[in-house]
Fold this protein.
Amino acid sequence: MIQENLARLRAEIEDICLKSGRNPDSVKLVGVSKMFPVAVLQEAYDAGLRVFGENKPQEFRDKHPQLPMDIEWHLIGHLQSNKVKYVVGKAELIHSVDSVALANEINKVASRSDVIQKVLIEVNTSGEYTKMGLHTFQEVKELAQNIAGMSSLDLRGLMTIGPNTADEDAIRMAFAGLRGMSEKLNNQGFRLTELSMGMTQDFEIAIREGATIIRIGTALFGARNYKSIK
């Protein structure tokens, strides 16, 4: 099933990109593997997937050593300062930096490990109180400026989660808002290249609005059984 799902997703991504005048290689597919066992991730790996995203640092810590070393891991969920040690130097990209305190802790751990940790700033573009992330451009700019002064961090771009709605215009506005923030920061001297936005239900809109990273779980792995998956 995963092999067929992956092939279908890649074909859909290519089609959307070509219709949008984009190179399909400009969009990275991250397989969101939270709550799925290692055997399922191995099946996806055998089908050709090489980029996986985990939400929980402890789950990432436990799965990482059990799978092939050429996997590119992303930490896409909320990260607490006391869990940073599980992620730094092992995740290619941390998507969810939303405070100076968290950035400082990542920088400290990365410095001790002699690595440069790539990060994204998480932005709440939907205004939904259930979502994490910064709300205003000024907040994003101030955090970006702080990160720029940290020797062991490499700020690559921004991340957001689309609004929980079937209203395509609202989704589009949220993603366009993230792109606009990125463009504004780059006009002020930053060199951001990544926009992490779009999941199973809205990745087509995200690609059309400039996503360079999409985070796909259900359309790739199937629905999660939250009662039985450990």
Q: What stands out?
A: The two ends are 21 Å apart (CA to CA).
